[in-house]
Amino acid sequence: MNTRPSLDKNSIRAARHPSPFVPLAFGLILLALAGAGKSFANPAQAAAFGDVPPDHWAFLYIEALSEAGYVAGCQAEPRLYCPASGMTRAEAAVFVVRGVRGSGFLPAQPATPTFADVPLAEWFAKWARQLWDDGYTAGCGADPLIFCPLQVHTRAEAIVFFLRMLRGKDYQPGPPGSMPYSDVPGESWYGKWVAAAYHEGLTADCEDPSNRGDALFRPLDPLTRAEAACMMVKAKLIPIPTPTPTGSATPTPSSTPTPTPSATPRPTETLPPGGDLCAGLITDKAPHPITTLPKPPVGQPVRDPEFGATIRRITDVGEGGVLKPMYSTIPAWNADESYLILYHTRNVGGRHELYDGRTYQFIKVLDIRPADLEQVYWHTSDPAILFYVDIVQKKLIRYNVDSGVKETVHTFACPSDLYGGSDPMFTSWDSNVFGLLCRQTSTQREVFAYNLATDSEGPRLLTTSYTAPQPGPGGALFYFDGDVLDFNMNVLRSLDLAKALEHGSLGRPANGHDTYYAVAFDGSPVGSLIAHDLTDGSLRVIIGPDAGYPYPPSSTHISAVSYKAPGWVFLSSVGDPPSGQTVLNNELYLADTNPGGTGKVCRIAHHRSWAGNGGPLGYWAEPHVVGSPSGTRLLFGSDWGGGNSVDTYVIELPSYRGSR
Q1: What is the pTM of this model?
Q2: In whole angstroms, how far apart are CA 162 and each of 98, 154, 416?
């Protein structure tokens, strides 16, 4: 996700304890002797290495490298890969040279030494020399020239190799701009490399699951052989094998998924009579400085001292954990608000959890594998159905949360990653239209639209962008990097945006005009909420200096997905320290953006999350407010004064008619 503010620094993990292993070059020679073309019909039954079982996080990446002939492991008998071992510079030389020249390449033995610390008798001498000749290394010291062959690569150092493997030996990334990781200083030598690798998709999921789901890259940590396999597969666009079910040849009856206990039936929430969600809330523009409020126990309501809203904590994630809404642009509640989804990470492997949408009680962990944590889309009329894209199988999946049944809606032709882009929003409001991105090569991607109702793909547009076209609520117009496109990816108009990738959300006022709501820190006008009409390109300042509000606070997120309350938009802002002392700083707020509507902006509560202003969890502690479909409730995450965990909180507005 695009994140404007810098995030807090965190400590690096403890250093690796080295373990002995056989040189990789020896394993590669064994591969040539043993043959690289083993059958791959069922990875679960044909695991290449005894220490990489099918449930290992890097299993598919390591198998893909083995199948392509790039690796044979660290030991011959029994055949092992040593996935947790650090990758030395000598081993990395083999990875890079073969990654560039092909899996069968074997360099010539040099006649004279190149590096003072690489004797010709060493197995890696020819690989280090080839790496030097190809221009991929300058060594690790200049006087004398040395290679440091047994030094373990850090993750930051390795990223340079894999980016140049992807983009060429002369590649130099530009300035990093917004930094996606809190422990990577933009001014560091590796800052631009890490940012570029992130945008190329080289870093996604390329680490142990216990380390995922935070804002850390861990640049100075040793690169493990498992992580190297993952990054190389992505850099070389090596096809990932699709696992097939294990079992005997004799068919066995499939088990019936356990039904999910249904939430207590209640009427679907709708916009209240009169249509004013701000009724009973504060609408002034005066400062309401934050005061102390102890973190409430789970389930106990507390009153916000400044704004009067009732806040209820609904989760207890535990020390170091994060349990919060997926993102501001993605509905957490289902169509009738009987269920909601939260994302749990940090103290568990990342997973999506289902909760009762009204009592807020945990129900179960969902058996889904979306392309990214935010790319889970509730159906807007069927409360039991959600959709997600399986990034590996290249399929759009329809999932029934009650029965657990998965159904493939459509399979897409895509040689590499297929997903909803790097800054995903929602589907069309009839749940029929999706915007997708297919990574073709290291520099080229195809973006396109898919219509579920007609089971049809639109024409594909070749681009270098990392984002996908995001469908507006009506399904006919798409927002894509500042432009408005139609279903066939034709550019209809450009919006007046200083920056196309600030935080935003697609919604629609009651007039039926699809609208891109965005924060604007630069250009003119600036504001926390600018409404850009996709139908004619016009804009309106809803919240900003032109409307009597301050310059937008940092980490402002927008949620315009209350599809049963058209035109009502929720916002959360972190702001600058001291937190919560000025207007909109550390606040949750709501705006009526309907032309001819109430015009109200109501300030709901302080979310009390320090996030990047002193909290240890940085990006993960940004509140990422999301409104319910009816607009009568909102969810947000908070570290509650800079704590070491992030829980979810709910506020039920005065207009909410449900009972608990």
Answers
A1: 0.66
A2: 12, 13, 17
